[in-house]
Design a protein that fits this description.
single chain; mainly alpha; 5 helices
Length: 104
């Protein structure tokens, strides 16, 4: 295999934001410090790579040096914490109404 570095076309602030969300989630779950294979930041970058590059989870996991199962679990956690930030349907309707939109 050939190892190489690449640039992810995403703002570093976005990776830090997702990393903070993952950190809060880990604390809420009671995860012990240093008990995970990846730091919150590396998990965030892996999740952002999946969204942006549409990469195979097994390939992302291999790049991070973790198992496929752990890769899927970490991706699921990243999606969960991001989805929790999205407004629910009623909030979206109210925001659209307040903005004067007639159709969604």
């Amino acid at each position: 295999m050939i190892a190489y570095r690449a640039m992810l076309d995403a703002p570093r602030a976005l990776a830090h934001y997702l990393s903070r969300l993952l950190n809060v989630e880990r604390r809420a779950r009671g995860t012990r410090r240093r008990s995970r294979a990846l730091t919150c930041f590396r998990q965030a970058v892996s999740g952002l790579r999946w969204f942006q590059e549409d990469r195979d989870v097994a390939a992302l996991a291999r790049d991070c040096g973790i198992s496929r199962a752990t890769g899927y679990r970490y991706l699921d956690e990243a999606i969960e914490v991001l989805a929790a930030q999205a407004p629910d349907l009623h909030e979206a309707w109210q925001r659209a109404k307040d903005d004067g939109l007639t159709h969604l």
